[in-house]
Amino acid sequence: MKFAYRALKKDQIVSNIIEASSESEVIGYLRKNEYTPISIEVSKPLFPELTSFFNKVTFDDIVDFTRQLAIMLNAGLTLVDCFEILEKQMSKEAMISLLQNIQKDILSGNTFSVALQKYPEHFPNLYIALVKSGEASGKLSDILLRLADNLEKQREFQSKIKGALTYPIIVVIGMFGIMFIMVTFVIPKLLNMYKDFNVELPVTTQILIVVSNFFSQFWPLIILTVIGMVSYVQKYFKTKAGKSHLDVVLLKLPVVGKIVSVSSLVDATRTLSILVGAGVSILDTLTIIIDTTGNSVYCNSFKNILKEVERGVSLGNAFNNESIFPPILVQMITVGETTGKLDDTMMRISHYFDLESEGSVKAITTLIEPIILVFLGLGVGFLVMSVITPIYNLTSSFK
After folding, report:
1. How is domain 153-399 classified at the CATH fold level?
2. What is the pLDDT of residues 8-58, one digit of tens each?
């Protein structure tokens, strides 16, 4: 935390900013250096909204924190010592504050898992359940190492998806932006010269004139309408009904549906493997999977499976009753139950789905680029034909 102070020393008033954990620490520092404090207050940034946006705790921060904590615990350090070392290494204020708060809870007598429960936005149920299991079994360092592996695999998969979609999204946004500027501001000036000539305009040029006139007259309204529609769609998809509709549509889309489906299976099987291996019961594991599954279609299926298992149905048969799951997953779960190595078989099938998701991501990347180029070519061709054809007709008439 940063404090802004004004202090007196040898008849001179000094103002500065210092980083400290409390106001009393600032006072101690000033008196130690022969300053007489005048005022001390928490330093506020000029743009708090912007600062909070760049200073917030991210998923990457949690992944790195988990890995570092696991390594230090595995090396024999105590939990309190680990937090003290991590606080000194951290440069992000939000992360330092989070570590300090967790450390205070631990020093006050709470367990690590109880301290984490106060921050559900950073530590999901899966994280807390594994930590609680590690505390109960005395193998917290081993559990955290497995958890760190899982989080790093999630981060790697997310980066692949972002990397595959970043280029197409930028190209599409740029394409629509340039076309909007051309049709609204550039094309009308080019088409004005045709009014003075008595020449029949092609159909494409007439369509472009109508569209261009509409855009040039109502472009502020068009922009506001687009912003309003995007805002409404975002709010609708955040509702339960909207989220459900979106998830159903995504699963039915070619290639995209495959990625959504496989990514849900990767997360579910990996979570099942880690929790079962950590000694968490099947019922608690399924409850956590329901809470962590992003797709509502799969979430509903896991809810049905939980009800079946509660009635005494085996996990393999419960999965078999849900048509959304592939046969290979049902077979592997049945084998895992039979052999008593469910955690191992789930980790293997998770790796299989992970490889399948990589293939799907490569497929969508390969597919998107030529589609964008085709649409871009058609758009540019339409504009060129609409503008150049009348000029060609004019030169022909002069001859």
Report:
1. Receptor-associated Protein (1.20.81)
2. 877 778 787 776 767 887 788 788 777 888 888 876 655 554 445 556 888
Residue whose tokens read 């900013």: 17
Both ends of the chain: CA-CA distance in Å? 80
Q: Is the CB of residue 320 less than 8 Å from the CB of residue 271?
A: no
19-28, 120-129, 322-331: lowest mean pLDDT where?
19-28
Class for the domain spanning 57-152: mainly alpha
Domain positions in the chain: 2-44, 57-152, 153-399
pTM across the whole model:
0.68
The type of residue at 130 is: L
Residue where the block lists tokens 């984490």: 116
Beta bridge partners of 320: none
Helix, strand or coil, per DSSP, at residue 37: strand
DSSP letter at 11 equals T
Q: What are phi and psi of 294, to 5 degrees?
A: -80, -35
Q: What average pLDDT does range 311-324 have in this prediction?
A: 90
